[in-house]
Amino acid sequence: MTQNMIQKHEHYWGVLHRVMTVATILDPKYKLKLIGFYFDSLFGKPDSEFHIKRAFNLCHDLVNEYTLKFKMSEGSSSYGESASSSSSLRLAKSICRSKKQVERLSIFDAYVNETNPTYKSKLDAYLEEKILPNTIDFDIFIWWKANGSKYPILAWVARDVLAIPVSTVASESAFS
């Protein structure tokens, strides 16, 4: 019975832990700095670097997934597409007649961006920006809306991740 409880705990809290980590990275007041601060105290300095790298890789993989989705979508996202990526996609579509060929080119673009060591992703650029001061009146959704044109994919990820409720209380219990 104890083993079953431990497995359930790891299953549910493990997912929540990853969601909260990505949400923290997408908060411009904290980014990876808060993750590093807490992981150092939780895991100790040597082990924390592994967990920080894992959190960064999770966020990076999520951004890559959204990039493919963003490039593949026919319509524009709520944050818009940049002119260069939009024109590149139109050019690719005019050259390649089949949707499968366009899909392969999009996957190839993501592969090149991921494997090119000189390429700096928008995630890297975002993380290198100065952390914002921690103020009471800060609204993360307004910040992402204002910076959505600078980081369209990250804004899309932030919109989805930050909207995930983290309460473990059933809605029936919360409102009764």
UniProtKB/TrEMBL annotation:
InterPro entries: hAT-like_transposase_RNase-H, HATC_C_dom, RNaseH-like_sf. It holds the Pfam family Dimer_Tnp_hAT. Residues 123-176 form the HAT C-terminal dimerisation domain. One of its GO terms (molecular function) is DNA binding. Residues 1-66 form the hAT-like transposase RNase-H fold domain. PANTHER family: BED FINGER-RELATED, ZINC FINGER BED DOMAIN-CONTAINING PROTEIN RICESLEEPER 2-LIKE ISOFORM X1. This is HAT C-terminal dimerisation domain-containing protein. It comes from Dipteronia sinensis.
